[in-house]
Amino acid sequence: MRKASSISALLFLGFVRSPSSKLRFNALRSYCDRISPSSIKVPGPLTQYKSLVEQGKLQHDPNQEAVAFQLEKLLGRLEQYEKEMAEYHERLAKWSTERENERCKLLMEEAESQQKDDVWKSVTNQGNKFVQRWLSRKKPENVEPGVGKWVSYLNRERKLDSVVGRRPTAPPAPKGLYIYGNVGSGKTMLMDMFYSATEGIVKHRKRYHFHEAMLKINEQMHQIWKNQVEEKSLHSSLSNWVMNLPFDSRVKEWVAAEERYKQEVQMKNILPAVADKFIIDWQADQKGGSILCFDEIQTVDVFAIVALSGIVSRLLSNGTVLVATSNRAPKDLNQDGMQREIFQKFVNKMGEHCENVLIGSEIDYRRVIAQSQRSMGQVHYFWPSDSIALEKFEKKWHEVTNQVGGQITSSTIRVMFGRTLEVPESSNGVARFTFEYLCGRPLGAADYIAVAENYHTVFISGIPMMSMRIRDKARRFITLVDELYNHHCRLFCSAASSIDELFQGTEEGALFDLESFQFETETEGSKLRRNVLAEGSVSSGGAPTGIVSMLSGQEEMFAFRRAVSRLIEMQTPVYLEGVHSLHPHFQRQRREFENIYTGNIQPQLSF
Q1: Where does the record place a coiled coil (predicted)?
Q2: Tell me: domain 176-237+259-359, CATH 2.60.120.620, correct?
């Protein structure tokens, strides 16, 4: 996950290279994976924003300042919310333990009734009328022979509600924010300022981009499904404890069937189970509040609508504070009218828990920053594809790889769901690919996330002008740019045209036609989701047989404009200076440095 915006990074984190090319720390901004409890507390988003404006790193915009002010107010309400959620989780843990104990008690009582019922039937068959009359008086009146498992399950749940009570209600959470507006208007920057400031205030925090969130949902759904399937095995822990019960084999089979049915009910409601693990680290103390920062909410297909509705609604109902960004207002997200009823419930739920805030600026501030902060002689985007530009691109490759040292080799990196990706050329966090290798094959967000997490500097050659003929490659390239940007990679490109002309089409025709074109593509998310529950993997070939995304030309225009805007920002000094602070490669180095530093100091302290 990207830990903060490139722009807000500069004020509070000065992780730079010294003249001797060794890593040096000037300051440390704390995030969800901070390395030291003594890290300096990050100021609120309004303070960060005003400071950047004063330094001339941002151009003042009243719309942005208004959003920063609202985020600042939300931040101020979180401390009390955290205390209330900690108390709520204590009540919830106590309730869960009592309910499970009572459920087992009820199940055993029903099993005893089953056992007595068997004895009664046996005696009846033998025709012993005296014993039959005596046992009939002892027969529980509430036993309902032949009752269905569903009715039995519901009856047991109702009894538990009356004995233990219903699940405790989470305290009212502060209303979150749904920030929407044009590309480059500062949505992500402001959200990341807020996210960085929540460290140390709220225990459970996550920041996801849309692609990353969908992949995580898929991964967790598969894991939950796999675990539940394994638990249905005859050799599972369920069978073991049932076999040790003091009942005959028929009653034990009945208990096992009831337990399996409970698991099946839970399995059918898999999205709430995924939601419960979406933010909170269950290995750690789960008490406390939770915040979800969700960048670029989209509804690209039916799965996205169903998954987002189920998971976000569950999180909001359980007290999670949501701060989200999107290009569209919530009601306009579902342009194609897919799953209208589910989508409307999702919009209504967000309306209850979030304030909708429009950043009304028509200015793409990434361009403003790029124009005012030209990279001092540092060229990262080489065009057109002539001999001069290609020679400069090759020279830059050799220059960068010489700087990082090490031998240029091929390597293999791990991708989600047990897959791998071959990297043709790499050296110490620097990798090189061709456009065709990354975008001309059936790769998707999972592959691009793996590249972005493993390499802080990426070279891509042979980038063509996009046209309808290669529209699937164009979508993959947009996803690739999104992930490189989200992970704060340094990007060097060799392309056929300037950034502004990249998505303007060719002599073969425009990339989209707003009046008649509906973008129909083998969306990589759909390919990734196909059979993911059953297989936990992704097929690399064949036509898509699952959900096919039908996106309007207007939706595609948002995506193209976002890609262009991000490519422009990725050339600016303010972005490039943040690479050494924010990329996962350097964060890992920083943690390793801290571990070594702590290890060296500890013996001296002990001595």
Answers
A1: 64-98
A2: no
